[in-house]
Design brief:
Protein name: Zinc protease
InterPro entries: Metalloenz_LuxS/M16, Pept_M16_N, Peptidase_M16, Peptidase_M16_C
Signal peptide: 1-24
Number of domains: 2
Keywords: Hydrolase, Metalloprotease, Protease, Signal, Zinc
Helix content: 40-55%
CATH topology of the largest domain: Cytochrome Bc1 Complex, Chain A, domain 1
CATH class of the largest domain: Alpha Beta
Family: Belongs to the peptidase M16 family.
Order of helices and strands: HHEEEHHEEHHHHHEHEEHHEEHHHHHEH
């Protein structure tokens, strides 16, 4: 047994035995401020090393985009490195590199974030650079002409030339009939072709404002020091009137949707997705934590139900997974996927029936207390290890704030998971795993006819 395995085993046991008050007491001092212009600041102290992570989160992503204008949020993220009033294209990155800092950015459905990791005495430089591009970004047409070609190539490499990524993109478009989550973050190809620099200027002017952003700083700092720095660099940036941003909600019962997706693959696979609430859209957040535990129950390692029963005992699949993204500002998906065991003559219809049997078993009989405690310990152990990183701590805070949920929920998370019961899992399975919430995709080789693929 490796050192990691021994530590994991010990931690699982200790988490099962530790009182919740002890777990809650281990959170670091955290401070929240809001500047007069609406910029929210969350600072979490972590003094183990003289390092700090700074993340600036904007509440804008592909779920905010409208048909015909997809990909704007991601394209603007690329252009944020192309110069401002103080820096030319790429110069800010060179400054940070010379200071020993690392930086990056990412765009998702619900938010766009920019981050730097550096020695704590470099933080003022990072904040000054972020404030400069929030207030005075330059969007040169010639830089855009080059960058949009980079984005098109990125889409080709990551989606168009990746059969399963392309299949999932088509699946998502069907699984989210009523919300912007049907939109790929990188944008549809036709929209990338007609995007222009004026589109990006309008997007930037609409959403990149202090009252639509959260600054998260975690590391060897104090709250008051960061507040003063934020006031110095961001305080003079005026707030803006923001466009309306309604929460992306799905149809409660839109009816079962089925797709057959021929792609360049030799192995067929199955995707099943149920429309379920996310953290911000759930009427009862207990349901969200129950869905997280169901995901781990089905696909939480070697002893999970899918690998144990469908893969090893029944030899029905060669691989199966369950996943649930809870940190969304709107409704989410509970996903199941699997590949049939072709050597045993299994088909996609067999796999679909097998997955339904697993869900029906959970509806009929709640898991035992012992099974739930094992799964819960795995989930909590993963969270505890993740939060050992200052970057992960900052990301959790930024995600929650960007979807409209208080960062305080991060510190309540362990207690909330501990409160979920076996009957909660059964109730949630009965509520959400229904055919009128379901989208199914049979992903088949292009050489296989659709008639052959029909169940």
């Amino acid at each position: 047994m490796t050192v990691f395995s021994r530590r994991t085993t010990g931690l699982l046991f200790s988490l099962l035995c530790a009182p919740l008050t002890v777990l809650a007491a281990e959170t670091q001092p955290t401070h929240e401020y809001t500047l007069d212009n609406g910029l929210k600041i969350v600072v979490r102290e972590d003094h183990r090393a003289p390092v700090v992570v700074s993340q600036l989160w904007y509440k804008i992503g592909s779920s905010y985009e409208t048909p015909g204008s997809t990909g704007l949020s991601h394209a603007l993220e690329h252009m944020m490195f192309k110069g401002s009033s103080k820096m030319g294209p790429g110069e800010a990155s060179l400054v940070l590199r010379d200071l020993g800092a690392t930086e990056n950015a990412f765009t998702t459905d619900d938010y766009t974030a920019y981050y730097q990791v550096m020695a704590k005495d470099r933080l003022p430089v990072a904040l000054e650079l972020e404030a400069d591009r929030m207030a005075t970004l330059r969007l040169p047409a010639d830089e855009f002409s080059r960058e949009i070609e980079v984005i098109k190539e990125e889409r080709r490499l990551r989606t168009d030339d990746q059969p399963m990524a392309l299949a999932y993109e088509r699946f998502s478009a069907a699984a989210y009939p009523a919300s912007g989550y049907r939109t790929p973050t990188i944008g549809w190809p036709a929209d990338l072709k007609r995007m222009n620099i004026d589109d990006l200027r309008h997007w930037y002017q609409s959403w990149y404002a202090p009252n639509n952003a959260t600054l998260v700083v975690v590391g060897d700092v104090t709250g008051e020091d960061v507040r003063q720095m934020a006031q110095q660099y961001f305080g003079q940036i005026p707030k803006r009137d923001l466009p309306p941003a309604k929460r992306p909600l799905e149809l409660q019962a839109s009816g079962e949707r089925r797709l057959i997706l021929p792609v360049r693959t030799q192995i067929p696979s199955l995707m099943m997705g149920f429309n379920v609430p996310g953290f911000a859209s759930a009427e009862n957040q207990r349901d969200v934590h129950a869905l997280r535990l169901i995901s781990a129950l089905l696909d939480g390692g070697y002893s999970a139900r899918l690998s144990t029963q469908l893969e090893r005992e029944q030899e029905l699949v060669t691989g199966a997974s369950a996943s649930y993204e809870s940190y969304t500002r709107g409704d989410s998906l509970f996903m199941l996927s699997a590949m049939p065991n072709l050597q045993k003559g299994k088909t996609l219809a067999d796999v679909e029936a097998g997955l339904w049997a697993q869900l029906d078993a959970l509806k009929q009989t709640p898991p035992s207390t012992a099974e739930l405690e094992r799964v819960r310990a795995q989930v909590i152990a993963s969270l505890v290890y993740e939060r050992d990183s200052i970057t992960a701590q900052a990301s959790n805070i930024g995600q929650l704030e960007s979807i409209g949920v208080s960062w305080h929920e991060m510190d309540n998370e362990l207690a909330d998971l501990q409160s979920v019961t076996p009957t909660d899992l059964q109730r949630v399975a009965r509520t959400y795993f229904t055919r009128d919430r379901l989208t199914v995709a049979h992903v088949i080789p292009e050489t296989q006819t659709q008639q052959e693929a029909r169940p």
